TrEMBL record:
It comes from Calidris pygmaea (Spoon-billed sandpiper). One of its GO terms (biological process) is nucleocytoplasmic transport. Coiled coil: none annotated. GO terms for molecular function: histone binding. Belongs to the ANP32 family. Residues 154-174 have a biased composition (Acidic residues). It is found in: Nucleus. This is Acidic leucine-rich nuclear phosphoprotein 32 family member. PROSITE patterns: LRR (PS51450). Pfam families: LRR_9. Multifunctional protein that is involved in the regulation of many processes. Residues 125-143 form the U2A'/phosphoprotein 32 family A C-terminal domain. Residues 145-174 are annotated as: Disordered. Signal peptide: none annotated.
Length: 174
């Protein structure tokens, strides 16, 4: 299903503060149909949709978590500070990010606490983790680990992505 068709259906139903568009087809590598009408979004997921750019993102002031993994994004991240100034979690794993200069614009995301670049070429650079933490001092977690290599907790303490772990809690049938 294409982005715009799925978005029209979601708007009709006025579904909450989460929007998952995983595996939808993007149009020419861009986000199409996502408009200012989605200004209440706190979580947006566009995993594996063929994105090459986030330039068409509308202003999403309340967006806290953005999942962009498994796309073809190689730059243009400066738009995120302008369009999504309150991001706390950003997942760019599996994209075409090759150097630290590409992620440098993320410095402007003052609330960014967690960044995932797993399976991006940039992770192969010497002293990658040390340099990213230096470049983005606001980060607490990089690729799921803090500066001291302690794993990030699985639970979402802030609660803005409610219900994602419900199945895990019920694994033993209780």
């Amino acid at each position: 299903m294409e982005f715009s068709l799925r978005l029209q259906r979601l708007l009709k139903n006025k579904q909450g503060m989460e929007l998952v568009l995983d595996n939808c087809r993007s149009y020419e590598g861009k986000i199409e149909g996502l408009t200012d009408e989605f200004e209440e979004l706190e979580f947006l997921s566009t995993i594996n949709v063929g994105l090459t750019s986030v330039a068409n993102l509308p202003k999403l002031n309340k967006l806290k978590k953005l999942e962009l993994s498994d796309n073809r994004i190689s730059g243009g991240l400066e738009v995120l500070a302008e369009k999504c100034p309150n991001l706390t979690h950003l997942n760019l794993s599996g994209n075409k990010i090759k150097d630290l200069g590409t992620i440098e614009p993320l410095k402007k995301l003052e609330n960014l606490k967690s960044l995932d670049l797993f399976n991006c070429e940039v992770t192969n650079l010497n002293d990658y983790r040390e340099n990213v933490f230096k470049l983005l001092p606001q980060l607490t977690y990089l690729d799921g680990y803090d500066r001291d290599d302690k794993e990030a907790p699985d639970s979402d303490a802030e609660g803005y992505v409610e219900g994602l772990d419900d199945e895990e809690e019920d694994e033993d049938g209780m």
